[in-house]
Amino acid sequence: MPVSFVWFDLGYTLVYQERENVYRQFLLEQGIDIGLESIEHAYHLTDKLFMREYPGALGQEMHTFYPWYIGVLNYTLQLSFPLSDQCERLRQIEKCRGLFWRTYPFVPSVLQLLKERSLGLGLISNWDLTARKVLEENKLSEYFDHIIVSSEVGVAKPDVEIFKKALQVSGVGPEQSLYVGDNYYDDVIGSSKVGMESCLINRFGNVGIEEIDSVRTISSVADLPRLLVAATMHIS
After folding, report:
1. pLDDT score at 138
2. SS3 call for 228
3. Burial class of residue 84, CB neighbours in 10 A (0-12, 13-18, 19+)
4. Nearest to 197, CA basis, from 216, 172, 182
5. Which residue, of 37, 41, 129, 137, has the greatest Cβ tally within 10 A?
6. Helix locations, 1-143, DSSP H
């Protein structure tokens, strides 16, 4: 059956934070100059490790994992700092820079293109009660027919119930749905439990997901239209 509805994750699928620039500023203050691309690569590896080894950790309140995450990030870059001091300074830099969630520049045009192709659009996200504020601030709410947020429905990915809830409210069958997200364990495995096809966002090819040998990947949402060349396309 052709895909008629595309579901999206939120964080690092549609929106992002300039956390790498914050970390680089901290390093420069310590007299360490590491290029932004290397820092981005280290964040990617740290994200993937947490997704694989510590499921659910990244979906919790920041204070429950932040020092732990930064420690792993430091290790990935072969660096070491007093963690409590480092985390306090990183938070200060974030506050001064006004760190916030922003839309990837290509996202609005892709979502608009999909809507013009008569595809339904939905969001299934593990997020706290700020999710709708993030969507509104980034002018993304208008694109979605249905928005399902874990903190609002009381269940989180990869639990099958959050995907069932999305299908129920949309009235769309799983065989008509494609799920797009950046976490293999939450997004791909979770959506597959209800029979959805999926597409995994992985910016650096197969880096960080070497343990996965059969999954459709794209580098960003910008690549999605080439998989959906027509609203009647069959995913195979």
Report:
1. 96
2. coil
3. exposed
4. 216
5. 41
6. 19-29, 36-53, 66-76, 83-97, 107-116, 131-137
Cβ of 126: how many Cβ atoms within 10 Å? Answer: 26
Helix, strand, or coil (residue 125):
strand
What's the first-to-final CA gap in the chain, in angstroms? Answer: 10
How do 15-16 and 146-149 pair as beta strands? unpaired
Q: Is the peptide bond before 158 cis (omega within 30 degrees of 0)?
A: yes
For residues 183 and 194, the answer to whether their CB atoms sit within 8 Å is: no
Query: What is the C-alpha separation between 108 and 63, in angstroms, rounded?
Result: 31
Residues of the chain with pLDDT under 50: 230-236
Condensed to tens digits (0 to 9), the pLDDT of residues 144-193 reads 999 999 999 999 999 999 999 999 999 999 999 999 999 999 999 999 99
- 136 CB neighbour count, 10 Å cutoff: 11
Contact in structure between 177 and 192 (CB atoms under 8 Å): no
Q: What is the pTM of this model?
A: 0.91
Instruction: Please check whether residue 203 is in contact with residue 44, taking contact to mean a CB–CB distance below 8 angstroms.
Output: yes
